[in-house]
C-alpha cells in the first residue's frame, strides 16, 4: 500500500498473526454480550473519584470529533474487516471503545485526581481525553505522524467544550519515554510490533505500585503482577 515501508519477513509473519487476533476479536459479539459487565445500561451519569460527572453525551462528543479528524487512509483500513486495524510503521492502530463499561470501570477505579497517566500509542487521543475527564494528568505518545496530527486537531476542537489543560500529546516512540514518571499506563494489547521489548521496559521502569491497564487481553505480561480482570476485555497489572 502506498506510503508504507517494506516489512521484513519476520514482521510480515507477526502482522499475519496480529491480523488474525484482531479480526477474531471483531467477531465476538456473542461472547461479549454474555459478559454482563459490558452492558452500558445504568452506567451514566458516571461519578468519578475527582467528583466530576461523565455523561454518555460527553463520550459521544469525543468519539465523533476524533472520528472526524482521522485521515481517510486510516479510516479505509479501520473499516475494512480484512485488515483488522490500521497498519503503521511501529504497530497496529485500533481505536479504543471508550464507552466500553469495562474501560470506564477500570479508569474509575485506577484514576484518582491528579494521577499521572500515560497512553502508549495514543492514536487520535480519545483515551487521553477520557483519562482527563477522570481527573488524571494525561499524556499520550503516538509515532504515526498522520494520526498524531488528527489528535492535535481533535484536542483543539474538543477544548471548546472540555477542559483539556491537563493533557499533553507527544509525537515520538514510546520506547524513548521514561515510564517511571507515571502512576498509571494504558496499552491496547497487541498494538506494538515489539511487545516483548515493551514488557521488559515496563517491568524495568515502572515504579512499585504503578498500574498498567491492558485492553483486549490476549496474553499475560508475566514480568508484571496480574491483579485481575474487569469483564473480558480489561486486565490490570502492577509492578512486582
Please characterize this protein's 3D structure.
This protein has 240 residues and is of the alpha/beta class. Helices cover 36% and strands 19% of the residues. The protein has eight helices and eleven strands. The strands form three sheets. A seven-stranded mixed sheet has the order 7-6-5-8-9-11-10. Strands 1-2 form a two-stranded antiparallel ribbon. A two-stranded antiparallel sheet has the order 3-4. Helix 3 packs across helix 7. It is globular. The N terminus is likely disordered.
Provide tags for this entry.
19% strand, alpha/beta, seven-stranded mixed sheet, disordered N terminus, two-stranded antiparallel ribbon, 240 residues
Number of H- or I-type helical stretches: 8
Radius of gyration: 17 Å
Major beta-sheet overview: 7 strands, mixed
The percent range for helix content is 25-40%
Q: Into which percentage range does the β-strand content fall?
A: 15-25%
Low-confidence stretches: 1-36
Class computed from helices, strands and strand pairing: alpha/beta
The tally of strands reads: 11
Mean pLDDT over all positions: 87
What order do the strands of the largest sheet run in, or round the barrel if closed?
7-6-5-8-9-11-10
Terminal residue distance: 42 Å
